Predict the structure.
Amino acid sequence: MTTNLPWADAARPLSSTLLRVLAALLHAASRHAARAAERAAAAAEAATPAIETVEFHELHRDSGAPEGALYVNGQLVAILPGVTRL
């Protein structure tokens, strides 16, 4: 026995059409945002310089470096007070 559903033959209601259009727009916006995020991440990764040298200086009277000085690629990036070894 087969039965026809009353809404199967009727035209789709306007609210259903609007929801489908809205869903398609949101999906397209999501894809666009994902591509923009991927481009931004790739640009940030390319802009980050590679770490070649890491130096740590303990307190030495004759070295002139402050206690706990941390250098990356020759640039002072942090001073770690109270730290004598890494």
